[in-house]
UniProtKB/TrEMBL annotation:
<dbReference type="InterPro" id="IPR036188">
    <property type="entry name" value="FAD/NAD-bd_sf"/>
</dbReference>
<dbReference type="GO" id="GO:0004497">
    <property type="term" value="F:monooxygenase activity"/>
</dbReference>
<protein>
    <submittedName>
        <fullName>FAD-dependent monooxygenase</fullName>
    </submittedName>
</protein>
<dbReference type="InterPro" id="IPR002938">
    <property type="entry name" value="FAD-bd"/>
</dbReference>
<dbReference type="InterPro" id="IPR051704">
    <property type="entry name" value="FAD_aromatic-hydroxylase"/>
</dbReference>
<dbReference type="Pfam" id="PF01494">
    <property type="entry name" value="FAD_binding_3"/>
</dbReference>
<dbReference type="GO" id="GO:0071949">
    <property type="term" value="F:FAD binding"/>
</dbReference>
<feature type="domain" description="FAD-binding">
    <location>
        <begin position="5"/>
        <end position="316"/>
    </location>
</feature>
<keyword id="KW-0560">Oxidoreductase</keyword>
<keyword id="KW-0503">Monooxygenase</keyword>
Length: 405
């Protein structure tokens, strides 16, 4: 690929990874981000499998591992603060990834490795795009205009750049759950274990450690799609505090933190289903193109892999349309598999009744037990169909108790 002027919208993991690799292939990149400065904070994310290999090839894997949150694993907690199940980070059924890192820390590492070669524009965003076949004329929020050969959207699930490129083609498939994320002060009750707590009425509180002496918290609940994320901030606070009322465990602490904070993220959880990922000189990657939701555990890895594949395809040919087509052909089957959520997700981990909560905690304890791990070793390598049958039986048991008790 001869040097092309490429504009990337979004200082995201996908955006910065793409900028890194395009620069390796002699491209001229600009990255535009509406936030006034480098993004920091955020929640725990993990990097898995092929994405880990991409970071190794970038030479930053050790640096990312050094920024690990130190999470030892995850524990299921009941309403009496008893540990009902523990899944260590190094266990066979681990929830904690090898590369467990705060999102902002990863973005900052990527920024440090691209800032000398990539032009970053903070505090502005794209308001208009004109693809005239020869180039793309871009208009920014401050009125400035510039020309680029290609424009790539990497600015998240509710991407405004995607709308400018494709209109309303992409479907945001709401999966039935709302989530709020925030950082709270660490107390003596917090440890280096993540703690998962289920409350009646399909509510979940999750507390996770970081390396900065604070605690990353999230609160999720099942709900119809009522556009709560569009409420004014103060209305969101009142709604979330009311939703936490009576939940028990650390709910009062979380309610106070929400009341005192404006730095929280609240949204419905949705997958992005787009019929195409490119159009003319436009393309999109990461959550803007194919968000699988946090439930998949693969959103970050998918963003990294997608950026790597797209950069590789663009490096192989001067025909950007051919590169875009090859990128989608190679990646879409993988995206489809990742977006196929486990049976019963998300309601199976958000039981509505006391019976359901007790059953979930009991099942988690059984799965984490030495006995079950021993049985798992005996049956290791059994067909996937048999594993799915066992999982479906567990789901049916939860459903029966939820609906008939």
């Amino acid at each position: 690929m001869n040097s092309k002027r490429v504009l990337i919208a979004g200082d995201s993991i996908a955006g910065s990874t793409l900028a890194f690799w395009l620069n390796k292939y002699s491209s001229d990149e600009t990255l535009v981000e509406r936030s006034p400065s480098q993004i920091s904070g955020g929640q725990n994310i993990d990097v898995r499998d092929a994405a880990f290999k991409v970071f190794e090839r970038m030479g930053i894997a050790k640096e990312i591992l050094a920024a690990n949150t130190g999470e030892l694993g995850i524990q299921f907690i009941d309403d009496k603060n008893r540990i009902r199940a523990s899944f260590p980070a190094n266990g066979a059924d681990r929830f904690t990834g090898e590369m467990e890192i705060i999102r902002g820390d990863l973005v900052n590492i990527l920024y440090d490795h691209t800032k000398n070669n990539v032009k970053y524009l903070f505090g502005k965003y794209i308001t208009a795009l004109d693809d005239n076949d020869m180039r793309v004329k871009v208009t920014y929020s401050d009125g400035e205009q510039a020309d680029f050969d290609l424009v790539i959207a990497a600015d998240g699930v509710r991407s405004k750049t995607r709308e400018l490129m494709f209109g309303n083609e992409a479907e945001l498939k709401y999966i039935g759950i709302y989530n709020v994320y925030l950082t709270i002060s660490k107390t003596h009750t917090d440890t280096n274990w993540a703690k998962w707590y289920n409350a009646q009425r399909s509510r979940v509180i999750l507390l996770r450690p970081d390396k900065d002496g604070s605690t990353r918290a999230s609160f999720s609940f099942l709900s119809p799609d009522n556009n709560y994320q569009e409420f004014p901030r103060e209305e969101q606070k009142k709604f979330l505090i009311a939703k936490l009322t009576g939940a028990g465990w650390e709910a009062p602490r979380l309610s106070k933190a929400i009341a005192d904070s404006d730095d929280f993220y609240f949204d419905g959880v949705s997958q992005v289903k787009a019929p195409r990922w490119s159009k003319g000189r436009f393309a999109m990657i990461g959550d803007a193109a194919y968000c699988p939701t946090p439930i998949s555990g693969m959103g970050t890895s998918l963003a990294i892999i997608g950026a790597y594949v797209l950069a590789g395809e663009l490096s192989q040919t001067e025909d950007y349309s051919k590169a875009f087509g090859s990128f989608e052909k190679k990646l879409r089957p993988f995206v489809k598999s990742v977006q196929s959520l486990p049976p019963g997700a998300p309601w199976i981990v958000h039981p509505k009744s006391k019976w359901g909560v007790n059953i979930l905690n009991t099942l988690a304890g059984a799965i984490a037990s030495d006995f079950i791990n021993g049985i798992s070793k005996i049956f290791k390598g059994k067909p996937a169909a048999k594993q799915k049958t066992i999982l479906c039986c567990l789901i049916i048991n939860v459903w029966v108790f939820e609906n008939f008790n």
